[in-house]
Hints:
Elements: E1 4-5, H1 6-20, E2 24-28, H2 44-48, E3 53-55, H3 60-72, E4 76-83, H4 91-96, H5 101-104, E5 114-119, H6 134-138, E6 144-146, H7 151-163, E7 168-173, H8 176-179, E8 181-182, E9 197-200, E10 205-209, H9 213-228, E11 232-236, E12 239-241, H10 245-255, E13 258-265, H11 270-282, E14 291-295, H12 306-309, H13 313-325
Parallel strand pairs: 2-3, 2-4, 4-5, 5-7, 6-7, 10-11, 10-13, 13-14
Antiparallel strand pairs: 1-8, 6-12, 9-11
Helix pairs in contact: 1-7, 9-13, 10-11
Amino acid sequence: MAGVTMLAAIHDTIANEMARDERVVVLGEDVGRNGGVFRVTDGLLDRFGESRVFDTPISEAAIIGASVGLSVTGMVPIVEIQFAGFAAQAYHQIVGQLSRMRYRSRGRFHCPVTVRAAYGGGIRTPEHHPDSIEAPYAHTPGITVVVPSNPADAKGLLASAIRDPDPVLFLEPIPLYRHARDDVPEGEHLIELGRASVVREPADAVVVAWGAMVPVACEAADVIGERRGAQVGVVDLRTLAPLDVETLVSAAERAGRVVVVHEAPLTAGFGAEVVATIQEEAFYSLEAPIRRVAGYDVPAPVPLVEDWCRPDTARVVAALEASLDA
């Protein structure tokens, strides 16, 4: 299928998985009659009925708590949290209950719950809407954290997430919902969770990114190529937890110069984990200090200054220039 948006790829994947497995249910605020805040679940209520697609009260804690109960009794819930920043209202349910059930029950119970949440800036949403909250959940044992950057990956990763016996936090970059268009494989398409993608082969430097920062990394690589003739690779992590250490280290060893890019604030962001891993595993291959380009250490900004806070191509280019000159 050519020219498919990420939103359409996610919608079709949910519908396909619901048709494949009658245990799959969808719940969340406005996912039924309104089809979700971004219309990702539009039409699913009419097709599958109110016993499998149902609206919930405005209570993220209740939504996650209900999904834990549904999953341990044999259902496969797909939860929509309208914006990832709202997941703070369910942090105790995600970290304290959902992620621990398999360990706590000594493997007797699994929680095959996929928590979908729109995240990140780029469309000037109000406060609490554009937060990038991947780091605390990647830090939580028992939950897989996935971030697609294109429609084909969104389809393959989401199908794998829904079929995973354990919980997955599936973060959907808001600006890519309708902006990212790509060819998407027809029929069944699964991408193994925990595997990064080498978008561009590294030679002189490599940018490590995920989500909406992957297109920014590719644009920066193009600028450096035209300006200096250097070949800059791009690695899309796709899954933050578990981290694909093998692909990450291999790319760092081949390039010798690494820039890590993410939207979340710099301090204690997931980029720090990426840097630490490369330092431990590929230190003797490095030819320059690893650099990070991230959001500033401030709350998610109001729409008027959003562009100032988010990493852009110019900042990534500057970091690459500094790395190549070191």
